[in-house]
């Protein structure tokens, strides 16, 4: 087996440093492991993306080492109450508001009201 490249050594070193820095902070170790597992399938030839993620990890390490970080988390998009209740619509589509405000234009783009002023 060949020796690890310099970039591989840097990434492994960053991984160890992030785990050490997040040792006392709730959720940090799990988040670091999950992030590295998510990007483990990147091809070795995608050096630009690996270097970008390495720089991003370095910035996160600086934040973890600063005294201001007390925990580490991630933003997760949860399902809204309308999506859970109906369940019929496709994810990401707007629910049909039967009782909500209506569009004054019909499907052809013309006003629903007659133009004679009534």
TrEMBL record:
Superkingdom of this protein's organism: Eukaryota
Q: Keywords for this entry?
A: Chaperone, Mitochondrion
User: In what residue span(s) does the Complex 1 LYR protein domain sit?
Assistant: 9-62
Q: Which GO terms describe its biological process?
A: mitochondrial respiratory chain complex II assembly
Q: Please give the coiled-coil regions recorded for this protein.
A: none
Principal location class: mitochondrion
Q: Where in the cell is it found?
A: Mitochondrion matrix
Q: Cross-referenced InterPro entries, in alphabetical order? A: Complex1_LYR_dom, Complex1_LYR_SDHAF1_LYRM8, SDHAF1
Q: Region entry Disordered: which residue ranges?
A: 75-118
Family annotation (Pfam families): Complex1_LYR (PF05347)
GO cellular component terms given for this protein: mitochondrial matrix
- Similarity comment: family membership: Belongs to the complex I LYR family. SDHAF1 subfamily.
Q: What is this protein called?
A: Succinate dehydrogenase assembly factor 1, mitochondrial
Gene label: LOC111161504
